[in-house]
Amino acid sequence: MTVAAALGVSFPALGGLEICRVEIPAGAEKTFVSVTDRGGQKSEALYVRMGNKAEEIPGGREITRLPAPLTVLEK
């Protein structure tokens, strides 16, 4: 399925005004975004949706290569 096919767009009324509502389902795997900072440096970023905003995961692609955290049990 393409990204466009998965999107849902509707135009409900809210408080007497017509708004545009875009519904995007969660992806099945991580997707990195190419970003350019104000200095012109390009990098890849990974974002996670939290409520009504998206937060960047620090470390980008490098953080996803780390092994899962180890659990230390104390005696």
What are the key terms here?
single chain, 75 residues, mainly beta, two-stranded antiparallel ribbon, 2 helices, 7 strands, 11% helix, 37% strand
Describe the structure.
With 75 residues, the chain is mostly beta strands. It has one domain (3-63). It has helices spanning 3-6, 60-63; strands spanning 8-10, 13-14, 17-18, 21-23, 33-36, 42-50, 53-57. The strands form three sheets. The chain has a three-stranded antiparallel sheet with strand order 5-6-7. Strands 1-4 form a two-stranded antiparallel ribbon. A hairpin with a 2-residue loop joins strand 2 and strand 3 (17-18). The protein is elongated and about 45 Å long. It starts with a helix and ends in a 12-residue tail after the last helix.
Largest sheet: 3 strands, antiparallel
- How many DSSP-defined strands? 7
* Count of individual domains: 1
- Overall body shape: elongated
Written as H for each helix and E for each strand, in order along the chain, the element string is: HEEEEEEEH
Low-confidence regions: none
Helix content: 10-25%
* Distance separating the two termini: 50 Å
Structural class: mainly beta
Radius of gyration: 18 Å
The fraction of residues in strands falls at 35-45%
Query: Which whole number gives the mean pLDDT?
Result: 80
Strand order of the largest sheet: 5-6-7
Number of helices: 2
Topology (elements, then pairings):
Blueprint: H1 3-6, E1 8-10, E2 13-14, E3 17-18, E4 21-23, E5 33-36, E6 42-50, E7 53-57, H2 60-63
What would you say about this model in short?
The protein contains 2 helices and 7 strands. The protein is mainly beta and 75 residues long.
